[in-house]
Batch of 3 targets.
Target 1
Amino acid sequence: MKTILVIGAGQLGSRHLQALKLVKHDLKISVVDPFQASLDVAKERFEGFNAEGGEHTIEYFLSVDELKDTEFDVVISASSCDTRYNALTKLLGKANVKNFLLEKVLFNKKDDYSSFQKILKDKNINAYVNCSMRTMPFYRDIRNIFLNTDLQYIVSGSNYRLMSNIIHYVDHMVYLSGCTEFEVDCSLLDKKYITSKREGFWEFNGTLLVKFANGSSGMFTSYNGGDSPAVIYINNEKCKIVSRESEGKIWMQKSDDAWKWEEIDFRIPYQSEMTSKIVTDLLKTGKCELVEYDESMNTHIQLYQPVLEHFNKYNDNIDYYPFT
């Protein structure tokens, strides 16, 4: 029987938990969250999720100190970035872990990234980050069109949680372009932050520009007002793509098809669908389609450090990333 630990049983953690019900391996699942109400909701969602998988057992705990197992095949960390580092290092002080599935934003302090990287290396632990666009069939399969080309990636919409979602888009750019080095221009971001939906975190509207070493560029705009849905444009000299996820539609035109527009039905998979496949792959091979920790660490720091510096120009001086 494989052992799985879910740390954080909130909105996202409970969806990861539901996904485990789909896994065909027999699982012994442990769930940790400091709030009993979150555990109760997660338990209700797990038990109410109609899915066929292996024979699973599950226990719920308020602290990692209460855990009965000291060996885990997969640990899913769905806690917030301000508590993740301490929670994971505490866990690794008492348990052995083979594979981590980590949510973004990874950590809220720059030094935690390299510190955790060293821990993973010393303990020979595989770790992947849940930037999932690169695993979705359409977004995954267009890589052959854009790899090693000078691509343009644009996202615009109203109040779409720019700081929270931009890591997904920039990770997708890294995947498509094959280039991992970039610079960020925050000069067009708003000077004043806005309060995030999650208490203790903040957001920015405005425009953030990204310039990759291979010439690719990104422009990400979140409008302060209106109700414009986020639309994604991905272009190079051979292909143009318009993705309107809110409508479940993608339009694509290619030079080798006389630039005729093709309409494609598109659906973002539920987190439960994606997690079940990721966990199954990790249990079988120790690998999955998500971005590895080292690459994602590089992307996180290159992206959020300039935004932090922008934040500190106009607001209280802080030494952590206040984004989730």
Target 2
Amino acid sequence: MITQNTVELYKSWFDNYVNQFVRQYPELAENIGIKADHSRKVSNEIVGIAENLKLNKEEVLLAETIGLFHDVGRFIQFVKYGTFSDSKSQNHAELGVEVLKENNILKDLSKEYQQIIYESILNHSRAEIIQDKNEKIIFFSKLIRDADKLDIWRLITEYYVVKEQKENKTLELELPDKDEISDIVFESIIAKKVVMKESMKTLNDFKLLQISWLFDLNFDYSIDRLYNKKYLDKIFETLPENLQISQVKEIVNKYFRNHNESFTY
């Protein structure tokens, strides 16, 4: 069983865990703080989705826990490697599961709940969810993937607004800020497929990857929230005006129109 008190204890542990890195590595405090804030906001986002789906209280608390812990591996990753790029370091989801197990954080939960949390964390960073006989694992993996995307859109659009005054290469995965768009990235979006991380060569590729996440959202609530927050509008404003980007905009327009004909994107 998972209760509100259980989740409050998890939040307290999470705060203490993050703060130890801030104290030990004050020069890294800004990026550690960004990821900690992201984790808390993803926890809020996943609760919003879960409540919209009318899950029961215990299921909402389970979702909230997954949201809080989904990126708990980011802190040791950044301290150890100085990057949030999994390809240049270690898979942060796998690191996160290791952290939870080493600290025995979920010891009071049932084996079923532990498995759902661990597998959902692992699935949140994969190109696709690994299919499982346990439908709850698949369901909660979908929840965390949507919630994570929603807050990353918030985070990166807020950053793009202040980028010229306060550049943060870590948030850009150290990618070069060039006008070029890789063919494979463009072709993926034209096919309405999520851009693979391995395809990225420039910051514009990364921005198009972020736009392509639209095609991987699992719940109507998530699509509605993305539309209402106008996150993709804000990303488009930072991209060059050319034929390729115009084509991408039209694909996004059609996707939203097909989702809800009343939208005029």
Target 3
Amino acid sequence: MAKIQAWAAQGAKQKLARYEFDPGALGAEEVEVEVEHCGLCHSDLSVLNNDWGISRYPFVPGHEAIGKVVALGGQTKGVKVGDHVGVGWTAESCMHCYLCLQGDQHLCLNAQPTIVGHAGGFANRVRAHWAWVIPLPAGLDATTAGPLLCGGITVFNPFVLHSISPTARVGVLGIGGLGHMALKFANAWGCDVTAFTSNESKFEEAKRLGAHHVVASKDVKAIKKIAGSLDMLLVTANAPLEWGALIRTLRPKGRMHVVGAVPEPIPVQVFDLIGAEREISASPTGAPVDIATMLEFAARHKIAPQVERFPMSRVNEALEHLEAGKARYRVILDADF
């Protein structure tokens, strides 16, 4: 196989530079995808900086890759050369453990993240196990689909995981890279949607994205006014918040579900849970079938992330843009090797 051209960092917090490597022989169950577009996610930045202590270098970021299948191992299934596909956070799982066999491949203890000890999609080609190479449905815009493979499934999966009714009242806390897609999904799901944001300049934008109501997330009085009204509060933010007041926005048997990387422990008064049988939960991305379902839902309802574009050759500029908090709301890199 030809060598792969990529952008890589040689150490934590270093700038990315052009990098060429030999991927070796294509595995029997591997698929090689020619990358056309790849989303830039905040998780790429976290792994680049080794914020989570799991990074390996040289580090090739990129786990929201969109492209065409160009090579197949001898035992692959479900895709063929020429298919338009996506590769998200996971590149491989064992496919034989209890979790994999029951359809929770994303929770496999031996799952291989696409960007940890594996070369990601900031490259001309990326590889993954055939089960994790997801065909794009007709009608989905491939040029903007990349962020759906990580951020999109992260906010979509809770609706499936907890059987959220289309008549439910759903709150989305944090209107950023995750939250803006959550508003679109919740609205298309049929829910009554409340957006929580600390930035008043986003109030009208939140409504354009799908919110029916908007609440200032740092205004305790405003939060208290909607106490007991939500069936689910989806937390996409990663900052300390008014947790007690937010939990009390839930109806009896309501759920606060966390998908944002909140950096500090969440304080919980157990009586806020016990008396109303409220629950707190969390989740990562999703299994391949859930990703495929999410993409079909997005295609049917014309849901796409709001994106900014950079050529991949300006990847360091794009990383600086993201780190400065200027992205509205996702960044996509267009391959230009």
